[in-house]
Design goal:
single chain, alpha+beta, Arc Repressor Mutant, subunit A, Dna Ligase, domain 1, three-stranded mixed sheet, two-stranded antiparallel sheet, 6 helices, about 15% strand, globular, binds zinc ion
């Protein structure tokens, strides 16, 4: 993400938090900035390392987790359950409502793209889950595969 896009996302995140009446503290904002700068999803441990490098402050892992919980609750970041890593939301600067996210995770370069799932698909999914009396804790979808860049690289070999 370019620097101007990052700044735009940060100021949008500030106004989102203001509207919902929650506080985007300096530390929370710093964590979000690191996620926005990173091209790859980060674990809480990796985030703490980055934080130390960029903001010259060591954070206990517990508080990193708390800040990540905050950011995911506000849909400013997302947790990838299948890899236990975090990404910034790709739609912070968007005006539309946040949809249930679907993540395409590249198993070669670990890059992630976030796309919204159509409501009909989620509805159909919920119906088939209900049929077997299963209760979903999350509707987020994570699909693993090979991204376009890595596919092109492979075909050039
Ligand atoms: Zn999102
Ligand atoms: Zn969007
Ligand atoms: Zn890839």
């Amino acid at each position: 993400m370019s620097r101007s896009n990052i700044n735009q996302s940060i100021s949008k995140a500030e106004s989102i938090c203001q509207e919902t009446g929650v506080k985007l503290t300096v530390k929370r904002k710093n964590v979000l900035t690191i996620l926005l700068h990173s091209n790859l999803p980060l674990s809480a441990y990796e985030l703490a390392e980055e934080y130390k490098v960029h903001f010259e402050e060591s954070l206990p892992t517990m508080s990193v987790y708390r800040m990540l919980d905050f950011l995911t609750q506000e849909n400013l970041a997302h947790k990838l359950a299948s890899t236990n890593k975090y990404v910034s939301c790709s739609h912070i600067a968007c005006e539309h409502q946040h949809e249930i996210p679907q993540f395409l995770i590249c198993d070669q370069c670990q890059s992630v793209s976030e796309i919204g799932v159509k409501k009909e698909i989620i509805k159909a999914l919920n119906q088939s889950v209900k049929k077997v009396n299963f209760s979903l804790s999350s509707q987020q979808l994570e699909l693993h595969g090979i991204c376009e860049v890595c596919q092109k690289k492979a075909s050039k070999k």
